[in-house]
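INFO  loader      accepted 1 record
INFO  loader      residues=91
INFO  predictor   begin
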Amino acid sequence: MPRAPMTIALPPSLSDEGFFFDRALARALDVPWSQAWTMRPAFLLSRPEQAFARAFLERLRNWKLYRCNQRRACGDFLAVNMSSPAPGSTC
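INFO  predictor   done
INFO  writer      dumping tokens
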């Protein structure tokens, strides 16, 4: 069985009503649902964390939000601004 990664990307669909965390976890890890299920506790969101993530993804469309592995002591979330670093920049 593969080792759980440090982070997984939370999809923008997290803000949708019909969002299922287990399906998104399996997609993010690119493993069958049965394997994703064993890694679920490391990435589960509490209700306040889920509310934060939903609000974040709804309001900040140019940001990516990653859930950190809770068993690896690396924080709760990682947020990355995907905007260009400077207006007119191509980097």
